Amino acid sequence: MKATNYSKGSSPRCWKNGKRIKSTNPLRLYGSVRFLSYILIRLLLILTVLLFLYLLIFSKLFSSVFHKRYNKQNEFAINFKNAYIPYVVDLPDNLNPACPASTKLLILIMTRRDSFSNRDGIRKTWLKDAVPGTVTKFIIADSPSKIEITDNKDAAQKMEELKKEKQLLKVEQMQNKDFIFLHGIEDNYANLHFKWLAALQWQQAFCPQTKWIMKTDDDTIVHLPRLNNWIDKKFTREIEKNKAMYFGWIISGYVSENVYKGNSYPPYMQGASYVASSQAITATMPHINKVIGFNMDDVLFTGILADLANVTRADHKEMFRVGNGLNKEEKCEDGIPYVTALYGAGNLEGFQNIYTKLKDVKCP
Fold it and tell me: What are the pLDDT digits (tens) for 139-149?
């Protein structure tokens, strides 16, 4: 048997039939695998970055398109010291943006769900004389979550009435596009301060460019050309001293110590109609969570919160009246009557009569 010679450093596995065969160097194999792994990792990182950029750009585009076309809801929260209530605002289909850039006066009208005749009366009388730059919105909250059965009406009948009311509101909104729907806040007297805070949150979010905000109720009659005159000639000059101001009829009254602990009750604006500079609302909002909320919204916002926010009140009771009566001789300036807002209408005929009376005021 022929002996096989092995050279130094060789291995029997490197020889076959007396011939040396080429072997695979483990170090070289490891290096090749490592190099391939490095390449694959780099490619994976590059693909990850590209995918991230693609998703980032696409998600922004998709989000923008989705929001513009489909997402009509915006989430907010009532945030008084004693109440935190999340709610959702529905934006009307045709409002994008909600207010034009040229908006000068935003009128926010507090209204009940069933006040169909009042809203009809407002639209057919004084809103027809709105000056350019005016935007008007009706604030409407949810129907009650609990059904109160009265006048021998059973629950089924009441549910049918609420269903019909909801459908009528839907039709009214389709025709007029002037509602701000609040979902999560019930429409009742106890929640007036919730509704008004929600209205102001809507203004801050969707109509911050407006210079003036007017608060009215749905039984109020306003002479808008006259109001525009006083805004230009009086209110604009008055805010040169203090940008944050309320304008209306200043009154005072009693409120329970359960809702206000001050030594004296602050004066406030008569709530049927008053005007605020946009700075007054902006100054007020950071203080909402510092106060106990209660349903006298005029007292709460134009009294207590106004004091906390250093908002000035200007008394113009000759313009913003309590009731719908007129003096035998009304005061005027430059041939324009001071009287600008009355309230007390309950149907179309009432709005027509009171608005005609308001327009027909003559200067002595």
Answer: 999 998 766 65
